[in-house]
Amino acid sequence: MDALATGNYLVIGRVGMDLFPDPPGTRTREATTMCVGMGGSAANTAAGLVKLGCKAALVTAVSDDAVGWYCEGQLDAYGVDRTHVKRVTGEPRTSLAVYETRIKEHQSVIYRNNAADFQMSLDDIEAIDFTKYGAVLTAGTVFAAEPSRSAAFRAFEKAKAAGLPILFDIDYRPYSWPSAEDAAQVLTRAGDMADVIVGNDEEFGFMAGHIDKGLAKARTLATTTAKIVIYKMGPEGAITCADGAETRTGIYPVAAVKPTGAGDSFMAGLLASLTQGRPLPEAVLRGSACASHVVARPGCAPAMPDTQALEAFLADHPGPTMAQEG
Measured between alpha carbons, how far is 194 from 222 in angstroms, rounded to an integer? Predict the structure, then answer.
């Protein structure tokens, strides 16, 4: 994975607006004041990468309205290159997420009917010079509808032709897909093309046909098509399959205020650490630290740690169980 050393990532997927009640702990149905922040898994990860010293360019589409303009402004504020972010007119709208900064009875409501990011097209991908980047990163939602699905697979083809590693976060969101069967088939196809695959136990189980088969699916991918497969198990930590070995890592316990944003921050921390040349088990642990940092704070992109915040977090937290070679 020497290409990751460039620290220059092409990130494909959605950006959106997040709304969450203030103060933390307030139910949405009782809210009188809402905070706003940038969201969308791809945009969150891109912002996290930039905060940790990498470069990231986002490929997506936003609606040509105030919400889309807000997202463009936020990408600029985080330092994410939006050369490949296009505006679309008509009915498509930029995604809106309303979620609570609370764990008990947490509510997250996502508005993605006719989502603007699904309007990413083949022409958008063909216009990109992939040789300018060190790796291509995307999450599963980008494959959920056309023309975005075909565009994303074309991006994978162009990445392979340019010799770039493909980094894939399964990120299965049932509400984005026409059917579970369609999702399983398409996500499996995408996973077979990826060099690095990250997902949780439920997502790998979904691809395999049953949650009990998820770990076996991850192991198979690691011994056939992928170089690194990370099987996340929530509070039980993660199993990393690479180079014919398995490494188990724990988590950094925190007082969480919400469950959202953890996976996006994990990916940013993992990749930034690999860019820095850190060993894979350490990179996974730093990704876990980033995830814990985010769930302990309001917002998603706003809660992503920069390098200073990550080092402070690691200094203040004794850490999870030590990695064990399997």
Answer: 10
What are the CA-CA distances from residue 321 to residues 231, 238, 256, 288 (Å)?
17, 11, 19, 12
Question: Which residue intervals of 147-243 are DSSP H helices?
Answer: 148-161, 180-193, 201-208, 214-224
Number of structural domains in the chain: 1
CB atoms within 10 A of CB 16: 31
CA 74 to chain CA centroid, Å, is 17
Of 183, 217, 177, residue with least CA distance to 197: 217
Residue 326 in any domain: the answer is no
Evaluate the omega torsion of the peptide bond into residue 147 and state whether it is cis, within 30 degrees of 0: yes
With 0.70 as the threshold, say if the pTM is over it. Answer: yes
- Residue 234 located in a structural domain: yes
Query: Which domain does 131 fall in, by range?
Result: 2-314
- Is the N-terminal amide bond of 23 cis, ω within 30° of 0? yes
Range 27-36, long-range pairs (CB < 8 A, 24+ positions) = 27/100, 27/102, 27/105, 27/107, 28/98, 28/99, 28/100, 28/107, 28/109, 34/98, 35/298, 35/299, 36/70
Which CATH number covers residue 214?
3.40.1190.20
> Residues 210, 221: contact at Cβ < 8 Å?
no
Task: Give per-residue pLDDT as tens, 278-310.
Answer: 999 999 999 999 999 999 999 999 999 999 999
Buried b (16+ CB within 10 A) or exposed e, 61-86: bbbbeebbebbbebbeebebbbebbb
Query: Which pLDDT tens digit goes with each residue over 66-87?
Result: 999 999 999 999 999 999 999 9
